Amino acid sequence: MSPRPRLVFFDVMDTLVRDPFHDVMPSFLGMTLPELLRCKHPTAWVDFELGHIDEPTFLATFLPGRSYDAAGFCHVVRESYHLLPGIRDLLRDLRQTTPGVRLYALSNYPPWYRWIAERCELDKLLDGAFVSYETGARKPDPAAYLVPCQRLGEPPAEALFIDDRAKNCEGARAVGMQAIVFNSAEQLREELAQRGLIAAAS
């Protein structure tokens, strides 16, 4: 059995919160997801996530040669953020049953993370967040995992990382963390219960 961690890091998009990139964004722009992937600027979103450009610059460069309602785009994206089914109860149970374990978001995301934290009340459910626009590192860059551990004063071996993307979990394991690939709240609860971090589903 894996040792009980002192830190648990959660990816946010499609792990805690539904990601609007797959459907809300292309729908608002009148595109399919493949069309959006083909038309969008090749680096604008990543630059925004890394804090290299601000929101006005991102919105102006996101779709080269195309005009769109940027304010409306931001509005529908902001309104689309919702916790995935079962996540709120899981996080509450995790905090109640493991008071000595600290919970943090560890996300590749731009400053719009603040919208997510507000709408989904993540500040009440987690102890804090490490987001790429502030840390300057995106998963699976080793720094994306190591910087949070350093700031919290714990070695990677004391951390558990949870993400819906296997490559990000591989990156966490490469620096010495435990990792779980997320599929659903039910699956995650079962795996956390096996580690003695939460009560199993009844």
Automatic annotation (TrEMBL):
What NCBIfam families does the annotation carry?
A: HAD-SF-IA-v3 (TIGR01509)
The name this protein carries in UniProt is: HAD family phosphatase
What CDD domains does the database record attribute to this sequence?
A: HAD_sEH-N_like
Q: Which domain of life is it from?
A: Bacteria
Q: Which organism is it from?
A: Polyangium sorediatum
- Identify the Gene3D superfamilies for this entry: HAD superfamily/HAD-like
What Pfam families does the annotation carry? Answer: Hydrolase
Which region is the signal sequence?
none
